[in-house]
């Protein structure tokens, strides 16, 4: 300890000595030194904590992860992914924000979100990286008392004369485009009675009897006593919906990369 004592004793800017050297070669704290000792120990403690926190963040086991998601994923992959992530990384604080795919991309680009689960196709240019996770078909959503609800499955052309609740182009361009494509490939253009942005809002309008709708197949796993979901047997494969994970690859934090890894792992397991 002798080597560093003179340097500490002569610290500039303190205006006082922290210790004095005794005649036998030992040292003794001055009153100022005793007062500073507790604070020095506290600083040492917090500096150790800071290093631990920084190390955990670098490993993706601590910090915060801001996740955007489209509502239709809340009853599917999102539930399982969040459950798995919390189990493997309990030290990461998750902040979940529901929005449309367009808004999620904008917030990732603006640095407000770290990662997002969005519907594809996006139909908009972006510098955000998209990692495809899965595809799923549309199914028909009908008011429970609708005559076609008596059938266990439908051909899309059977909906040709029905009023549709369709997705808005401004906020859900991908969903709208794929629904229109499906109908066109079945030989008709839908009669649009009402438009809505979120899948849940579309279903609420179907429930009131305003029309029928095409919704992601995952919605049938969230039963509604006033809606009948029916598979469409002649739906063109090219009209299937995609689900992708979005993030800024060059800015992805370890926590974000861990989230993507778990998402791909769940998909590989067949979630």
Please provide a written account of the structure.
This protein has seven helices and twelve strands. It has 271 residues and is of the alpha/beta class. A five-stranded mixed β-sheet has the order 4-3-5-12-6, with helices on both faces. Strands 10-7-11 form a three-stranded antiparallel β-sheet, covered by helices on one side. It has a two-stranded antiparallel sheet with strand order 1-2. α3 packs across α7. The protein starts with a helix and ends with a helix.
Describe the structure in brief:
Helices cover 35% and strands 24% of the residues. The protein is of the alpha/beta class and 271 residues long.
Pick out its properties.
single chain, 271 residues, alpha/beta, five-stranded mixed beta sheet, three-stranded antiparallel beta sheet, 7 helices, 12 strands, disordered N terminus
Average pLDDT reading? 86
Order of strands across the biggest sheet?
Answer: 4-3-5-12-6
**Count of individual helical segments:** 7
Please state roughly what percent of the residues sit in beta strands, choosing from under 5%, 5-15%, 15-25%, 25-35%, 35-45% or over 45%.
Answer: 15-25%
Helix/sheet category: alpha/beta
SSE sequence, one letter per element? HEEHEHEHEEEEHEHEEEH
The parts where pLDDT drops under 50 for at least 5 residues are 1-10
| Percent of residues in helices | 25-40%
The gyration radius over C-alpha positions equals 29 Å
Main sheet record: 5 strands, mixed
Q: Describe the global form.
A: elongated
How many angstroms separate the termini?
60 Å
Q: Give the number of DSSP strands.
A: 12
């Amino acid at each position: 300890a002798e080597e560093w004592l003179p340097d500490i004793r002569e610290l500039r800017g303190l205006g006082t000595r922290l210790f004095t050297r005794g005649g036998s070669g030992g040292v003794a704290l001055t009153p100022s030194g005793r007062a500073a000792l507790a604070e020095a120990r506290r600083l040492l403690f917090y500096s150790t904590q800071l290093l631990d926190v920084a190390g955990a963040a670098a490993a993706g086991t601590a910090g915060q992860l801001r996740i955007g998601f489209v509502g239709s994923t809340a009853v599917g992959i999102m539930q399982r992914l969040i459950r798995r992530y919390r189990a493997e990384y309990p030290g990461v604080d998750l902040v979940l924000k529901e929005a449309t795919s367009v808004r999620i991309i904008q917030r990732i680009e603006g640095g407000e979100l770290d990662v997002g689960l969005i519907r594809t196709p996006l139909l908009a240019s972006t510098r955000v990286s998209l990692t495809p996770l899965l595809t799923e078909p549309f199914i028909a959503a009908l008011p429970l008392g609708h005559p076609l609800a008596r059938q266990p499955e439908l051909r899309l052309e059977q909906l040709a004369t029905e009023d549709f609740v369709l997705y808005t182009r401004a906020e859900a361009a991908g969903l709208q485009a794929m629904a229109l494509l499906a109908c066109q490939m079945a030989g008709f253009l839908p009669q649009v009675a009402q438009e809505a942005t979120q899948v849940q809002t579309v279903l609420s309008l179907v429930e009131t009897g305003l029309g029928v709708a095409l919704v992601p197949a995952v919605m049938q796993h969230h039963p509604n006593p006033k809606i009948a979901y029916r598979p469409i047997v002649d739906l063109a494969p090219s009209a299937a919906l995609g689900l992708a994970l979005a993030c800024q690859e060059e800015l992805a934090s370890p926590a974000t990369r861990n989230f993507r890894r778990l998402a791909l792992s769940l998909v590989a397991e067949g979630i």
